Amino acid sequence: xxxxxxxxxxxxxxxxxxxxxxxxxxxxxxxxxxxxxxxxxxxxxxxxxxxxxxxxxxxxxxxxxxxxxxxxxxxxxxxxxxxxxxxxxxxxxxxxxxxxxxxxxxxxxxxxxxxxxxxxxxxxxxxxxxxxxxxxxxxxxxxxxxxxxxxxxxxxxxxxxxxxxxxxxxxxxxxxxxxxxxxxxxxxxxxxxxxxxxxxxxxxxxxxxxxxxxxxxxxxxxxxxxxxxxxxxxxxxxxxxxxxxxxxxxxxxxxxxxxxxxxxxxxxxxxxxxxxxxxxxxxxxxxxxxxxxxxxxxxxxxxxxxxxxxxxxxxxxxxxxxxxxxxxxxxxxxxxxxxxxxxxxxxxxxxxxxxxxxxxxxxxxxxxxxxxxxxxxxxxxxxxxxxxxxxxxxxxxxxxxxxxxxxxxxxxxxxxxxxxxxxxxxxxxxxxxxxxxxxxxxxxxxxxxxxxxxxxxxxxxxxxxxxxxxxxxxxxxxxxxxxxxxxxxxxxxxxxxxxxxxxxxxxxxxxxxxxxxxxxxxxxxxxxxxxxxxxxxxxxxxxxxxxxxxxxxxxxxxxxxxxxxxxxxxxxxxxxxxxxxxxxxxxxxxxxxxxxxxxxxxxxxxxxxxxxxxxxxxxxxxxxxxxxxxxxxxxxxxxxxxxxxxxxxxxxxxxxxxxxxxxxxxxxxxxxxxxxxxxxxxxxxxxxxxxxxxxxxxxxxxxxxxxxxxxxxxxxxxxxxxxxxxxxxxxxxxxxxxxxxxxxxxxxxxxxxxxxxxxxxxxxxxxxxxxxxxxxxxxxxxxxxxxxxxxxxxxxxxxxxxxxxxxxxxxxxxxxxxxxxxxx
Length: 824
Known about the structure:
The protein contains 31 helices and 17 strands. The N and C termini lie far apart (101 Å).
C-alpha cells in the first residue's frame, strides 16, 4: 500500500483529449455535439490521480494529512485560477456592457473565487446550455467548484481507507471503509437520475449528482492498490484502451444534453476508467495503443490542460462580445490566444508556485498564502465590478441615456390639473414593462399618479401575441394579479398592458431573417396564436370593464435587426450580430405589425374601456425606424426594448394619451371619467350599506377615499366618488357622514352631483344632522352607462389635513367620514 506510483505520461494524453474536446465543442457545438463531456473525463482522472498522489502519506496524523492535502491542492489549483478570474473580471468590466445577457456575470465570477460558481449558476438560474451561459466568461468554473467541494469530503474518506488497510488494529473498519465510497457513489448516481427528472440544472451543476464521477476514479485506484484487478497482456491492455477511447468518443458524439449527467455521462466515465486501467494497471508488457497518448505534443497539451481549460472560455466569450467568434480566422485567433495564455499561466504561475518550497513546508504556509491571495484578488475583482460604469469602455456606461430606470425628475412639475391625483396605474407585462419604467416614473413624479410596475416574466399577461395559460405556472400568476386588481384598482384607474407585440427580428445574441419573421407573422400558426391570445384576454378586459377600470394597450413598437447596445462601440460595431444595419423601414414594420393592429382594433371595438396608444410615430422618421435619433442618441437599448433616452422622447406623447382619458383637461376623450363599474345586483331599498373595514360597501367606493377603519372611512381628497347601483323606482339616497372639524374649521361644505348633475350643497357642522338626503331624478338616471348605477361625486372645498391645521400628525386631506348609506 506504501509503494510509489510513477508518473504516467499517458494520463496527460487523456487530459489532452478531454480539454481539446471541450475547446472544440465551445468553438462550435455542431462539430462535436457531446464535447462538453470532456469535463466528465477530467472528473474521473482527478479522482484517480489525487488518490494515487496520497500513497506514502499514510503515516501522518489526520491533521497533518489534511493540512498537507489542502496545501498541495491550493498550490495546484488556486494561483492560476484567481489570476485568470481577476484578469477576466478586468476585461469584462472594460468590454462587456451590462444587460440581461450579462446580468449574472458578476455573481458567478465573484463566487468562483471561493469554489462556489456552480451554486451561483443554480441560484441565478443560468442553465449551462442557455444563451446567458454562452456569454458568461466565468461559467466554465462550475466544474472547478464541483471538484473543490469534493475535496471537502474526499480527504477524510481516503485517509480512513488507508488507515484501515495499513494498520492491523484498524482492520475492523475495513468492511465499512471499503463500502463507504461505493455506497456514496451509488447514492450520487441515483441522485443524478432523480435530479435529472425534476431539476436538471441541479443535476448538471451540483456535487451530489457528480460525486459518483470523481468517486469512480478513486475506486479504480483502490482496486489497483489492493491488487484486485487482473494482470493484462500488452494486447489486452491495447484492446481495453481502444474500447475505452471509443467509449469516450461515443460520449463526445452522442451525449444528450437533455439527459445529462444521467445516463449519458456513463459513457465518458466508463471509457475513462477503461483507459486509465489499461495505461496504469498491472500489465505484462506495454500497451502499444498507449503510445498515441505519449506523443510529446499530446503530453504537453495534457500538462497545460488545466490552464487551457481556465483560459479558453474567457477568450471565447470576450470575442463573442466584441469581434465575434464565427469566421475561421476568428476561431483560429481564439485558439492561438488560448494556448499563449495557457502556456504563460503554466510556466509562470502554476509551476513556480507548485514547486515553491517556502510554501510547501510547513503546510500552513501554503494554506495561509492561498487564503490571503484569494481574499486580496477577490477584493480586487469586487472593486472592478463596483466601479464598472466608471471603468467601462462602452458608451452604454451612460446608464441614464441607455437604461430605463426610475430616475428622479429634476424638471419643474408640469401638472396643470388634478386629473391624475388619487388615480392608480398598474403597468403589467413582460420585460417591456420594465423598459417603460422611466416614462411611467416621470408620469408619477409630474402628474401625481400612483404607479405600480408588475413584471410577470414569461407569463406576459395581455401580450396579445400568443396565449400563456398553458405555460408552466402562468394560470396561477394570472389569477393572482386579477385578484390584486380586483382588490386594489378603483373605478377610473388604469391597467396598462405593456408587452412585446411583434415577433423579434433579433435577440440579444442572435439575428433572424426579416423575411422569415414577416412570413411567420402572417402564417396560419401566428393567426391561431393571435386568436387564442384574444380569447384569453377578453374575459380579463370584461372583468376590468365591470370594475370601471380603463385598459390601455401600447401598439406594437418597431423592432430592430440587432441589439443596439452590442453594436455601438468601436470594439463591437463589426460583430456579426450587428449585420449590415440595425434600422428597418417603417413600411416593413407596418406589414409586420398589421395582424396585431387588426387584433387591437377588434378589442377596441368590443370593449368600452379600452384605449390604444401608438408609440411608432415618435420612434420613426422619414420612413425609417432607427436605434438612434437625429442627434445620435439611443432610442433603443437592444432590438426591441426602449432606452432611457427613448423613454424621455416618448413621455410627452404618453402623458398626453393618459390625460386624454379624463374629462378635466382640454381636448380630452374622457374615457376614464365616463366609465362606471357594473354590479351583480342593485342595493335593495332599506338595506343599510356600511363602510367600515368589514363593511358591505367597500365595493361601491371610487377614488378619493382613505383606507377603511373600524367605524367607517375618511375622505382623503377634496373630491370623492361613490358608485351606487339602484332599482328603477329608487328616489332618494341617504348618506350617513360626519365632518372633519377643528377649532379653526367649524364646518365642511359638501357639493354633491349625481351623474354630473347638481344634487345640492350641504353644510356639515358639529350640530347638523348626520344624514345627507339626495334626490335621484330621471335626468340623472338616464345619463349613466348602466341604467341601475349612479355615480355620486362629492366636492369638499374645505378639506384639510390635521398636520396643516396643527392638530395632529395626519397628512391626509380630510373632509368627511362616511359611516353608511340607505337607498329609498
